[in-house]
Design a protein that fits this description.
With about 375 residues, this protein is α/β, with parallel strands linked by helices. The protein has 16 helices and 17 strands. It has a domain of about 260 residues: tm_1862 like domain (pyruvate-formate lyase- activating enzyme). It has a 9-stranded mixed beta sheet, sandwiched between helices. Strands 12-13-14 form a 3-stranded antiparallel beta sheet. A 3-stranded antiparallel beta sheet has the order 15-17-16. It binds iron/sulfur cluster. The site of iron/sulfur cluster has 11 residues, from loops.
Length: about 375
Amino acid sequence: MEYKYIREKPLGIYIHIPFCIKKCRYCDFLSFADTDRSFHEIYTAKMTDEIASWSLIHNNMYTVDTIFVGGGTPSILSPELLCDLLDAVFARYRVREDAEITIEANPGTLTPEKLTAFRNAGFTRISMGAQSFDPGLLKMMGRIHTPEEIFESFSTARKAGFDNINLDLIFGLPGETQKQWMKDIDTAIGLTPEHISFYSLQIEEGTEIYHDIVSGKVETLPDLEDRIMYHNAIETLTEAGYGHYEISNAARPGFASRHNLKYWSLDDYLGVGLGAHSYVNGVRSANTNQISDYMSGNTDHGRISWLHKNSESDDISEYVFLGLRKTEGINFDHFRQAFGKNFWDLYSEETEKLIGRGLLERDDHTLRLTRLGLDLSNQVFSEYV
Ligand code: SF4
């Protein structure tokens, strides 16, 4: 898209808070248990320095339209520190008045005072890690909260003025039944959040759940059961008025995550903090994931550990396989506008093959995953890499 003035170019900012109260049993995200407030303060100060140095590089080129503070568990930070972070962005960048500003939060870390302070600081959206409403499954996952705390946090967030709430759910847990999963989905819908994310459990090497599986303590759920859960969730969410807009995300009309859509649309986003990734002006980069390096700021350019200038063919390939994550798929006219090329001149062979296997479907304007393609999306994406 051409912008009349370069400064209108939108930018999303992701801010990574790697701290949690304790590590969940399935988690291999870049996070660790740390509740030391003085360390949080130093880390936040490093991130405000990083925001300042990026803003000098960006030289007033962008207008921020989304901010996402994720983790980890950002809600264990004090509201004052979170306020400092948002202030650092507001001080250095133009931020649209209607910007979507999200904080990830976990039940068990929220109080009415905190939620009101988050709202007053400028957060417009809260993404809550519910994961399940089943006490046994929460315990198996090593979550810090009870089902009651989810209900309480949700209702407190509403009272604090959050009218855009996401609930994260996980399915496909060892021993989980279809009945338990559908109860989770129904309970989540019953709370009437604007957005629901639903992820199939990924068993990652090194996690406690992985060791339970390797030692034979628990068994993974068969793939077929997992896929039935997935499609039942889509069906139930759709019937309840949620639009399934990305492989693992559904939202009420107008509430799709504007920030996350950037990742799937090859839009610019800046990642700040430990291990955060960026895609800005055709350059992909990643910050170091070593906390000591991040804190000492030894590496160049805002603690970057890896940087790659995308070629045109990198951009084209990413546009296709990221765009196919969206259920609307990719639009051939938009593709031509973005790259000045005809999609079919580049990808007819692999695309016809995937259509033939029933993984993709097309009409005159768009190409998207089929129901089977949603299940085997990695096979589809690998054809375009
Ligand atoms: S709260 Fe989230 S980031 Fe923290 S350990 Fe649990 S799953 Fe990982």
